[in-house]
Fold each of these.
Amino acid sequence: MVDEISEECGVIGIWGHEHASRIAAMGLFAMQHRGQEASGIAATDGREVRLVRQMGLVARLTEYCAEHGELPGHAAIGHVRYSTAGGSALINAQPFLIRHKRGPLAIGHNGNLINAKALRHQMEEMGHIFQSTSDTEAILHLVARHPSEDIDEAVRASLAKVHGSYCVVMLAKDRMFVGRDPMGIRPLCLGRLEKAWVVASESCAFDLVGATYVRDIEPGELLVIDEKGTRSLRIAESTKRAHCIFEFVYFSRPDSLIFGHSCDKIRRRLGKQLATECPAEADVVIGVPDSSNTAALGFSHKSGIRFEIGLLRNHYVGRTFIDPTQAGREYKVKLKFNPIPGVLKGRRVVLVDDSIVRGTTLRSLCRMVREAGASEIHVRISSPPVRHPCFYGMDFPTETELLASNMSVEDMRKYLGVDSLGYLSIDGMVNTARELEGQFCTGCFSGCYPDEELNKPERNQTALPL
């Protein structure tokens, strides 16, 4: 995908392994696609929690650890970040580490808190001092100010005060906390590595470290892991489930289990449903590598049109949305993708992508395919038009940034310079994941959000009394 959606973040936690920080780093490598801005690891040896963070890719983190030594300890948490709340700076890199009346506490967070600004304002009025601009820091302040001496209750009660999407891993000197929001918006799973426990945003991290998937962390669950074993607490109850369907469309690796189901299987179904709803007369089907290849395969299987590798991706070029200028983005598209004229020349091409956000880089890509000799280009998108902002962690906060909010499908077709443009319907998208019927957030497509306050015109960010 080249249309500038960023993933939110990825988290990992390990308890009960003599090389916990090394295992955490390996797991972060597997989830590098979820964030390329910064990474970090916190580890405990039972007496102290130590932290290392670096801007850039996980490789920079491991290089630092190789030079300065592996963080000691039997438990560790890790984080890869792309900023959705808070700017791009080392001070906003996670995990965060504080020391409060109950001892050291580190946190890594995937998601976005819709009431973070209101909570922060209330606490600043009370004299709290914030070190970062990240919404995650508000959770630590809530824990630190909680009156109970029982850290389990302090963490549980603090998570109950925040609204929005969160999967958190928290590390004290003698235990690890794993929490997920009551609607289960972001994925988080639990695994076993011999006698050690492992948690991660995606199960592909388990594959790399040799762990076995056990189950998903339940929505609204707070899992506490210490030397006595595991115990499950309830943060809050909710009958509503609102899994982010973009995890299947784009965010997650196809080899991961997401919300307990194969991402590869559902992504192929998206492509098949797309071929049913938006057929095209063409000679070849190509995907925008890598995230759209699986949907393109599904489109090919259903339509009977041959799948080809028509675009070659250079994996050593940074993601296009990181460049702040349009000219820079277009230049990086050319660096990142190269069309294969032998596949495209004189052919009617179905170009499958997973979504269109701003449309600028997809426009450049379509121009490249045309220049490589394609006689026709039929763009097919394996999700509905993205017309509304996301408040749960995706990187397009306003309608003004969204092409589909400002243009009709026909106008977008002309803007892209292609022969036809077709989108998957919302019902068609949701029905592909029929195992999770009625359990998705489709707010960025439909404008209807699982948090009712976001459906109000003023979209207030509410906060509970502190």
Amino acid sequence: MIQFLTHPANLPFSVSLALMLMIGLIEGLGMLVGFAFSSLLDNLLPDVDLDVDAPDLADHGAFSEFLSWLRFREVPVIAILVAFLTSFSITGFVLQQVSFGVLGFMLPAVVAGAIAFFLSLPGVRLFAGVLSKIMPKDETEAVSRDSFIGRPATITLGTARRGGAAQAKLKDKHGQTHYVLVEPDDDDASFAQGDSVLILCQVGSVFHAIPNDNKHMLD
């Protein structure tokens, strides 16, 4: 079994399985220290408009349609990622086992990986569709990160300094909690764990913030 999993022809699927297990470990450890990797991943990704008829997506219509087909933004990105890694690795191992049993040899990793990639996509879409139906609406509704501007947040992990972001949590208009990266807007300021801040603007994947002196505006 170990020889099968570590065979060079199965390298893409072994790596995929290892990544899936590592994500599960990070999520489990994150629950113990208050770090939400899944929510942070959602907020690190750029906002994507899935309206394939929009003029500004004319050059990326196929890609946007593909994301829409996968139900991207209907469920947490981490769920789609885990579903893909799991489906890809299982499909690949089964494909190589069948190939070895029928042909007497396993397919090259590149060939098997390409086949498994396309075969795994329907399973990912099916999983995302089921998950989107059982999750509460306010947990699956896409929220633009622009709406975070002006909202209070609380530093939850690390110390935020200019050029060194820390994790903070905030609630959107639906009451859903998001974890974002925050650093002070002032070069000389710093925010410690537990400090309340106000989101001022977004620069790349990091939000700039100022101290929240309004005690009526708490996360």
Amino acid sequence: MSFAAQFELLDPKLHANKVFDCGNDEMNQFLKRYADKNRKLGLSSTWVLPEQYGDGSEQKMKLGSYYTLASSTVTREEVPQDKKLPAYPVPVVLLVRIAVDKHYQKQGLGKKTLITALRKAAELTEKGLPALGVVLDVLDSDALSFYQIFDDFQPFDNNPMRLFISMKVINQLG
């Protein structure tokens, strides 16, 4: 099965988000029940990578992976940088969720989804959404092992399960 050329904003009329299964009930339920509601409320946006059907099928497209981004702020004391920052909260992009369907795990799709999410955060920043970097909360030790493959993430606020990557570093990604 091949995937669409790029990630798309979740549209439950087109995407089969109800059958997505990454093996984690909380992540599955978010996509099934809350992702579209949160978008409509202006809280977050979820992008999905749908399977590509070449037969002109009218059925909803199954999903290989998804990620969710939201805006947030942090204090300068939390940011792992030497840069002098203002005393008031600074904006960041929060990588709220990232998941790969069980059928596609351990095939490189997680890395592709993460890189795409980081690039989308940088794109949004370039288009006017100010952000110093991306913050993400690590779900468990397996997820932490995945993120540790990338040397660019730093523990956020001295918490190894909360990571940070600056926009400067994201913009240097190939």
Amino acid sequence: MGFVAAVQRALIERYTTFTGRASRDEFWWFMLFQLIVAIAASVIDGALGSPLLQLVVSLALLVPFIALVVRRLHDADRSGWWALLLLLPVIGLIALIVIGLTPGTAGENRFGPAPRPSPSG
């Protein structure tokens, strides 16, 4: 899965979908997208002297981010409740990295079939 396909899937197709599974590619491409958007919003806010754009962007990406983390946890055959680790400052960051790097279970698990491959975008 490529950058555009991952972002499209996370923001358009599965914006509020907390069921199913998400591949590592989908997870990391969306993390890169979030980083790029956050940096751009920060630069624009710096030029304007107001943190408003960064706040709006953060709020707009919060739900798809949490949904993607839950689906990524499902791919590793873990409950979505593990996402609550993100509330812990340092442990949450470490957990997010581990979640992203953990390979998903092969084939179908209790959360559904393996993430379908998508054409690169």
